[in-house]
Automatic annotation (TrEMBL):
This is Flavin reductase like domain-containing protein. It comes from Lucifera butyrica. InterPro entries: Flavin_Rdtase-like_dom (IPR002563), Flavoredoxin (IPR052174), Split_barrel_FMN-bd (IPR012349). PANTHER family: FLAVOREDOXIN-RELATED-RELATED, HYPOTHETICAL CYTOSOLIC PROTEIN. It holds the Pfam family Flavin_Reduct. GO terms for molecular function: FMN binding; oxidoreductase activity, acting on the CH-NH group of donors, NAD or NADP as acceptor. Belongs to the flavoredoxin family. It comes from the Bacteria.
Amino acid sequence: MKQVSYNEYAAKVMEGLPQGAFLTTAHAGKINSMTIGWGSLGVMWRKPVFLVMVRPSRFTFELIEKSNEFTVSVPLHDMKQALSLCGTKSGREMDKLATAGLKAVPGQTIATPVIAGCGLHYECKVIYKQAMLPDALEKELTQSCYPAGDHHTLYYGEITATYLDE
């Protein structure tokens, strides 16, 4: 693994995120990875932060609430099939990593693993979380993104390590 600055690949992250990245979390021997297409990389409270959003209905939500940490693995090459599977199936019902042919590799600074072979990895420790306040969101976004009322919880993760696969 090659250590890099959290912001060295920021443009590539923001360009690739809409195509999907793997948000992984783990607790008590259970590992789950889901596909995310929304998020943000920046600085909050003088710390490098990766902001991710998870709906309370997701299995990932249960694990992240218990572990208070997560990783984001950003594919730097085509991983569409694995991203599709991790974005459409539930980790409650299957081992998504095994089914998608993905391998979890231990994190360097946290207990949650990263997805081997993706390219770029962020390890994050939750420093703040907030359930969305539906009334605070623009009505058009509520209608287009939350027609079922299933608003996200926002997780601000302090980036504890950033590195590339070698």
